[in-house]
Amino acid sequence: MIRLEKLMRDLPTDPSKRRAHEQAVVPWIDEEVVKLCPCCAKMFNLARRKHHCRLCGSVICSDCSTGVDFEFAERVLHPATISKFEVPSAADQDVVKAKKEYTKENRSLGSKLIERPQESLNSLKSLVDQKLTEPQFRSCHLCRSILDRQERRSEAATSEPVLLFQFFQRLQEHMREGREQAASYKTAVESLHRGEEDHELHEAKRQRVKLLKIAEDIDAMSRRIAKLDTEPEATSPAVGLRLQLQQRIRHDAVNFVKATLVGMPDVPTEEEYAELKRSRIEAAAKRVQEERLAARAMRQRFEQEQARREKKVMTTSSSRDRLSPNHTGKAVKTVMTPNNMLEAQ
Fold it and tell me: What percent of the chain shows pLDDT beyond 90?
């Protein structure tokens, strides 16, 4: 990656200067000492010519080499800002313009070499080797595979995990539906266990089956999230955090299923529900009878208290009449008779 960055930095547009720039960054192996291609072990000849990898400097044949275009190199170096799907910015347009000028100059140079056959064969080979019609440089398959792997790592670290996000959204929908169904089912079952007739027994059973189906969907979706494929050789911190996130989602989904969907009370059977209704009716009748008896006893106590107060008032009034003075201001002696004695009592 360091060599690639140096190659792409201040890259000349002149082919001769560009060749010197590439050799200054990566020392080339002397092609005179290499008789066989190190990749395919085939001998070099006029048909199988020698080429240099711009990243490692090794000598390879044409079949064992490939081109690395500038756009791909920039995308590997700057994954967060360079993308072949983005609309070019002003700076990117300047780069594209420089590439076009570079291609135009290379084409004109090729025309001059054709018009002047006395130019050296090495210059003509250099012209053909660099594929002057395209802004790219030559690389061996091994270096190209390293760049491809680096690009995949960069995409995994910078791009949005679309599949993980979609699965997580579906998981959230299942959990939201399960939470709502669990609350409705719990209310219905509690009402049925009290022997009430506000909910139907078959409807509660249907909700129970639906809750189990939602629990299965959540378990299956969380398993898929936990087992999402990642790059086997990817060991970047971003990939590690993503794996931790996937395992955390799986753990939370399992806890949600256990706490919300699986541990719900069972629906009573028809016989149990009939017994619960009968017990509820008997309890209601007993409660009504107890309330009636309590009301009767309270009414009797009230009547007794009322009679006692009336008797007390009469006794107080009779005593006041016996002790009251006559019109002359003298106290009148009350003669005790059998009737007065009964009234006093």
Answer: 19
CB of 7 closer than 8 Å to CB of 74: no
pTM exceeding the 0.70 threshold for the entire prediction: no
HSE-CB of 223 using CA atoms within 13 angstroms: 7
Chain centroid to CA 169: how far? 6
Mean pLDDT of the chain: 77
In a domain, 203, yes or no: yes
Two tokens, residue 264: 């719900």
Place of tokens 């919300």: 260
Q: Write out the residue range of the structural domain in which residue 212 sits.
A: 162-268
Whether 197 and 63 map to the same domain: the answer is: no
Residue-wise pLDDT tens digits, 132-149:
445 788 899 889 898 888
- Whether residue 132 sits in one domain with residue 42: yes
Burial of 137 (0-12, 13-18, 19+ CB in 10 A): buried
Q: What is the DSSP string of 98-165?
A: HHHHHHHHHHHHHHHHHH-TTS-HHHHHHHHHTTTTSSEEEEEHHHHHHHHHHHHHHHHHHS--HHHH
134 lies in a domain? Answer: yes
pLDDT given for residue 172 in this prediction:
93
